[in-house]
Amino acid sequence: MNRLVNLLREDHDALWRLLDDVTDDTDTTDATGGPAQDPAPRRPARRLVALLSAHELAEERVVWPAVRRLCEDGDALARTALAQEDEAKRALRALARLPSGGPGFTACLRTLAGLTRAHLTYEQEQVWPRLESRLTERDDATLARRWRAARRRAPTRPHPWLPARPAVLGTVGPAVAALDRARDALRARTAAGRT
């Protein structure tokens, strides 16, 4: 059992590593003691944007409806988490639009890291134990299967305008994800042409 939480934990572990990578990169200074203008944080920041965007959408489609349905205080847990996610999505969107090393990039990245760390901690300490205690073997298997499907079809960019409603996300999410993946492929081809 605990298949769903194990899948969530895999994403959380990857997110924690990326957060450590990007915040370590932004803590460097140049020879004068000022902030380094190294474009290196851009790549892990892009990975963070993609992983966090996909993770949050999959949670909105699968996890929060299950928490609401199964946990005694599920509505309150989900409301708190969704408010945290909404705030992080706005920071993600801002980060995705800022050039690395440009004005505001490091501050936005640190803000996003703080919001994300608080949110991941909330889920791990407040939500997962309650959800795990309520999952039957069948619920766990079904939710794990749905999670995998939602993650495969999730967008790679933040879309804060998408409402956190499973029906809407199930319909619009795959179309938005296809557009995101096409943009990702174009960016990769453009970057490969520059090297």
Task: Describe, in plain words, how this protein is organized in 3D.
Residues 4-130 form the Hemerythrin-like domain. The protein has 195 residues and is mostly helical. It has a single domain (3-194), classed as Up-down Bundle (Four Helix Bundle (Hemerythrin (Met), subunit A)), CATH 1.20.120. It is built from 6 helices and no strands. It has helices at residues 3-26, 42-70, 74-97, 105-134, 137-152, 166-194. The longest helix is centred in the middle third of the chain and has 30 residues, at 105-134. The protein is globular, with a radius of gyration of 18 Å. The model is unreliable at 27-39 (pLDDT under 50).
Any descriptors?
195 residues; 0% strand; Hemerythrin-like; single chain; mainly alpha
Radius of gyration (CA) equals: 18 Å
Number of strands: 0
Instruction: Give a quick account of the main beta sheet: strands, pairing sense, barrel closure.
Output: none
Counting DSSP H or I runs of 4 or more residues, the number of helices is: 6
CATH architecture designation? Up-down Bundle
Distance between the termini: 47 Å
Strand content: under 5%
Shape: globular
CATH topology: Four Helix Bundle (Hemerythrin (Met), subunit A)
Low confidence ranges: 27-39
The CATH C-level name is: Mainly Alpha
Binned, the helix content reads over 70%
Mean pLDDT: 81
What oligomeric state is this? Answer: single chain
**What is the domain tally?**
1
Order of helices and strands: HHHHHH
Classification by helices and strands: mainly alpha
